[in-house]
Write a structure and sequence with these properties.
The chain has 298 residues and is mainly alpha-helical. It is 68% helix and 3% strand. α2 crosses α10 (237-249). The model is unreliable at 292-298 (pLDDT under 50).
Length: 298
């Protein structure tokens, strides 16, 4: 087993499009949970509507930019759907509604046939041609050895990390503003914020929608990088992975989501590659290096 290759593959995964997408996901969740105290257990649903909003629009003949707009609008509507009936109640009601609503939405998308709007269990593929057509990088590989990216991977990574930078700057500006200070007061004691005349419900709803839109862009990045959207990609486990990334980097911190995503994917890929190499080298007798059919699809 070549440990250098294992480390290089882990670094490549942590700084690639997937690492950036989960950093973006955690930034949205940080606004919900870290700064507002909203227990959103259906965060992956925002990724799903962002990805499907873009894919369905393009698949039906619309321009790519319109697909992005539709994905954003879908995330706003989903935030309103989740928040309007729950945010005046206790925090656990939001958790119940979001995880159930996300699963209901995924089941509805999955229930169609191949010729339906969403493609059913087959999903939608090859919808990001316009995006890759705008790639400024000439064909080839960029990097060194195992750390090299193709021109397509590099283009997605550059766009994804640019969105991460913009979202991080936006979050810093928001939480430093009077609006952000109200969010933090709601997290600490919403009754106290309400006693000062703040409309707690409106602030919570704004936070839920804003964080959801940020997550929708993460869903678009994942879908574009794969050139595919599939309903089984958006299982509830995706939400808890985002929580793991956020907690690893530190909740309510400016760079916590970014650091958490990079560290998480490095550790995940390093452990995966190391164990596979150890099994292939015979260091773990009786173990198989073949992935089970239920393994992650990334």
């Amino acid at each position: 087993m070549d440990i250098v290759i294992v480390v290089a593959d882990a670094v490549r995964a942590s700084v690639g499009p997937l690492g950036a997408a989960y950093a973006l996901t955690a930034i949205g969740l940080n606004l919900h949970y870290g700064y507002t105290g909203l227990l959103n257990f259906g965060h992956v649903a925002f990724l799903m509507v962002g990805a499907y909003g873009t894919a369905v629009t393009v698949d039906q003949g619309g321009p790519f930019w319109l697909g992005i707009l539709v994905g954003v609008i879908a995330a706003i509507l989903l935030g309103l759907l989740f928040g309007l009936p729950t945010l005046r109640l206790r925090v656990d009601y939001l958790a119940i509604v979001t995880i159930a609503g996300g699963e209901v939405l995924r089941t509805v998308i999955r229930s169609g046939d191949k010729d339906s709007l969403t493609g059913g269990v087959f999903g939608i593929t090859q919808f990001a041609t316009t995006f890759f057509g705008a790639n400024p990088f000439p064909e080839g590989e960029y990097g060194w050895g195992r750390l090299a990216f193709t021109e397509r991977q590099l283009w997605v990574a550059v766009v994804a990390w640019s969105l991460v930078a913009l979202a991080t700057i936006l979050l810093v500006l928001l939480v430093r503003s009077p609006w952000g200070r109200v969010l933090r007061s709601i997290r600490e004691d919403e009754d106290a914020a309400r006693s000062l005349g703040k409309n707690v419900f409106a602030y919570k709803l704004q936070s839920l929608v804003t964080g959801g839109v940020i997550a929708a862009f993460a869903g678009m990045i994942i879908a574009i990088e794969r050139q595919s959207v599939h309903p089984d990609t958006y299982l509830p486990a995706g939400t808890f992975l985002a929580y793991a990334v956020l907690i690893l980097g530190g909740t309510a911190s400016r760079l916590g989501p970014v650091l958490g995503a990079v560290v998480y994917w490095f550790l995940f890929e390093f452990t995966d590659g190391f164990l596979r190499g150890a099994i292939s080298a015979g260091w773990i007798p009786g173990a198989s290096s073949r992935r089970p059919t239920s393994a992650r699809s990334e």
